[in-house]
Amino acid sequence: MRKQIVVLQRMGRRDNADAVTEATHQMESLVGMIADCGTRDELMGMEGAAARQYFQAMGEIVPEGVRFEGRSGRPPADVINAALSYGYAILLGEAVSALCAAGLDPAIGLLHAEEDRRPSLALDLMEEFRPLIVDQVVVAAARRNTLTGAHGRREEAVPGVLLTKAGKEGSAPSSVDT
Predict the structure, then answer these.
(1) 83 closest CA partner among 40, 140, 45
(2) Would the CA dihedral through 57, 58, 60, 61 be positive or negative?
(3) What do you get for the CA distance between the two ends of the chain, in Å?
(4) pTM for the complete prediction?
């Protein structure tokens, strides 16, 4: 949550200062309540409430052409969410590899539930890095127009938005991508 606050503060601009300020104040309030959490579920509830504030403010930070309402995954509803999901998948793979290299079982989690053979410990580990590595890169790419609405595509067989090859590479879309 603290890293999300830092990312919002770094990326906030005058034209979206009110949304960013409100979100960071709400998130700081939630951080202050963490010490009072008595269960894992209460802690995860705080994290979820902060995430809603964070992604809503992030939606205000990206350019108008790729604005989004908040985080949506499985399936991503827009190109920003598709890019976030793609980045998180890469980060997850790196976290699993690092844990295995250290001799740790990536499936034994502390905060994420151990279910369905998910790499719960890797999911826990990557939480620290998501805002600074993935979120910041996606927003910066959108602001530089190296990530645009044209980097997303829809397929009949797959619900939601998928990144094009150019979207994954951070290059201009081409007619071959679609």
Answers:
(1) 140
(2) positive
(3) 37
(4) 0.88
3-state secondary structure of 6: helix
What DSSP designation does 62 have?
S
One DSSP character per residue, the chain reads -HHHHHHHHHH--GGGHHHHHHHHHHHHHHHHHGGG--SHHHHHHHHHHHHHHHHHHHHHHS-GGG--SS---SS-SSHHHHHHHHHHHHHHHHHHHHHHHTT--TT--SSS---TT--HHHHHHHTTTIIIIIIHHHHHHHHTTSS-GGGEEEETTEEEEEE-HHHHHT----TTT-
Structure tokens at 74: 């499985």
Q: Pull the structure tokens for residue 24.
A: 């960071």
The predicted-structure confidence for 141-172, as pLDDT tens digits, reads as follows 999 999 999 999 988 887 888 898 998 887 66
Tokens of 131: 């805002």
Nearest to 11 by CA among 57, 78, 56: 57
- Neighbouring CB atoms inside 10 A of 152's CB total 23
Task: Enumerate residues 6+ apart whose C-beta is below 8 A from 52.
Answer: 70, 71
Tell me if 2 sits within 8 A of 132, measured CB to CB.
no
Which pLDDT tens digit goes with each residue over 45-67? 999 999 999 999 999 899 988 98
